[in-house]
Amino acid sequence: MLEGMSAERIEPDSLVELDDRGRTNLRRFGGEPHARYLVSVRPDGAIVFLPAVAMTVQEAAMWREHPKLMREIAGHVSGGSSMPMVTLDADKL
């Protein structure tokens, strides 16, 4: 299970019933409010939800051009590491 997700124990092949609008509650399986997923339907009918994030074009460019810095920032934001403060000249970004 992904870090930060908690779910009741669900046995494999648990029966899930959809409501009148075709919905079920993903919290039962560890889904969090406002979580995003890439969803695919396999040829056998299996529905697969993969956790996903969305980012701006600018964020994607930062990850592409400065991956080490972005990993440091991500580590800091998640509480895993401290980060020294650096002064940057905006004209050099």
Characterization of this structure:
- There is one protein chain.
- By secondary structure, this protein is α+β, with helices and mostly antiparallel strands.
- It has 2 domains: 1-52; 53-83, no CATH class.
- 22% of the residues lie in helices and 13% in strands.
- It has helices at 57-65, 67-77; strands at residues 36-41, 47-52.
- A two-stranded antiparallel ribbon has the order 1-2.
- Helix 1 packs across helix 2.
- The radius of gyration is 19 Å and the shape is elongated.
- It starts with 35 loop residues before the first strand and ends in a 16-residue tail after the last helix.
- The model has no long low-confidence stretch (mean pLDDT 82).
Q: What is the helix content?
A: 10-25%
Estimated share of beta-strand residues = 5-15%
Broad shape: elongated
User: Could you list the spans in which at least 5 consecutive residues all have pLDDT below 50?
Assistant: none
Mean pLDDT: 82
Distance, first to last CA: 38 Å
> Could you give the order of strands across the largest sheet?
1-2
- How many domain regions? 2
**Element string (H = helix, E = strand):** EEHH
Number of helices: 2
Number of E strands: 2
